[in-house]
Design goal:
By secondary structure, this protein is of the alpha/beta class. It folds into two domains: 148 residues, Rossmann fold (3-Layer(aba) Sandwich); 107 residues, Dihydrodipicolinate Reductase, domain 2 (2-Layer Sandwich). Helix 1 packs across helix 9, helix 4 packs parallel to helix 5 and helix 6 packs parallel to helix 7.
Length: 264
């Protein structure tokens, strides 16, 4: 199975491409780079610090799409939407970990899944997806007797806030409670009239240093507190999950899937 990787000049893209290159099941076919960036046409193996392997750095999106069977994309909403459209047109598998979509962009992105296998998750790690399952179950058991707060911390260059993973965790606990996150979610508390409301799901976002990703769901009751935490110390966990998802998706019919589907 030939895999193409977008954003290979970034930290996440480079990590994914390196692990695909070293994987014994899949093949690193190509990587997409920005036009005019000076990397076009270079050998991908050499770019990643290995021997030349014949795979190329490509700036033309159509050429990139044609070079592979599946694409792993951790980029930005605009490029991810274009990747989804191209994958639908060419019947390619898309594994996407991009966050920061607006509601309209999410709907448009998902619409392309009628003609392609699209696997999207705000977090591809096995541990985080296990955490989502646990959080949903705990929320269903504790009900509104416990207040729920979600705390996340990431590196100082992260753009979106709260993180996509925090929002997915919020959706999981909301589902466990049988409520709509859009209705009960509180993304920030500012001012003198910021008292917590009964039943709301609160979020807090911290940014600093090189933190890859820490997430904690706090269930706070009277006299006791339950906390579920996941801390990422290596980006390899996201890359390995994405590769596993690509292999899984190659045997599926067109549709919109999540990492939780892959694990199930």
């Amino acid at each position: 199975m030939k895999i193409g990787v977008t954003g290979v000049t970034g930290r996440m893209g480079r990590t994914i491409a390196t692990l695909v290159l070293q994987d014994s099941v899949v093949e690193l076919a190509s990587a997409l780079v920005r036009q005019g960036g000076g990397q076009e046409g270079g050998d991908l193996g050499e770019f990643l610090g290995f021997e030349k392997n014949g795979s190329k750095l490509i700036s033309d999106i159509d050429q990139f799409i044609q070079s592979c069977d599946a694409i792993i994309d951790f980029s930005a909403p605009a490029l991810s939407l274009e990747m989804a459209q191209k994958c639908a047109e060419n019947k390619k598998v898309l594994v996407c970990g991009t966050t920061g979509f607006s509601e309209a962009e999410k709907q448009k992105f998902a619409s392309f899944a009628k003609d392609a296998v699209i696997i999207w998750s705000s977090n591809m790690s096995l541990g985080v997806n296990l955490l989502m399952n646990l959080a949903e179950k705990v929320a269903g058991i504790l009900h509104e007797d416990f207040d729920i707060e979600i705390l996340e911390m990431h590196h100082n260059n992260k753009v979106d806030s709260p993180s996509g993973t925090a929002l997915s965790l919020g959706a999981a606990v909301a589902k466990g409670r049988g409520v709509d996150l859009k209705t009960v979610g509180n993304m920030a508390r500012v001012g003198k009239e910021a008292k917590r409301q009964k039943g709301e799901i609160g979020f807090a976002a911290l940014r600093g240093g090189d933190v890859i990703g820490d997430h904690t769901i706090i269930f706070a009751g009277d006299g006791e507190r339950v906390e579920l935490t996941h801390k990422a110390s290596n980006r390899d966990i996201f890359a390995k999950g994405a590769i596993r998802a690509a292999i899984w998706g190659s045997a599926k019919d067109s549709g919109f899937y999540s990492m939780r589907d892959v694990l199930s």
